[in-house]
Structures are given as C-alpha cells and as structure tokens.
Design brief:
Number of strands: 0
Shape: elongated
Strand content: under 5%
Distance between the termini: 70 Å
Radius of gyration: 23 Å
Structural class: mainly alpha
Length: about 50
C-alpha cells in the first residue's frame, strides 16, 4: 500500500544533510538550551529571598 502511494505521488527521497548543516543545527540546539537555562536562572533569582 505504501509503495503505491509513493509511486502515485511521485515522491523523491530527501538528500542527506551536509556536515555544515548538521553543525549549524547542533549549535542552534545548544544555544536554545543556554537561553532556557538563563531564563530559568533569572526567574529563580527574582523569586528567591536572601537568607536572614
């Protein structure tokens, strides 16, 4: 069934992404993780009170 659907839609396989594209994607994921961590720490610092 799937083979017929692919043939009917004339689907073409995706080309594998190159090394540069893979590196950029990895950097973007790492950057987003750092932004989330920074936001978490900033929010935490706003809610904590210093010990008395």
């Amino acid at each position: 069934m799937l083979a017929m659907m692919g043939a009917a839609l004339e689907l073409v396989p995706d080309a594998p992404e190159d090394k540069e594209q893979s590196d950029l994607k990895e950097l973007q994921v790492a950057r987003m993780a750092l932004i989330k961590e920074r936001t978490r720490l900033l929010n935490r610092s706003k809610t904590q009170t210093p010990p008395s």
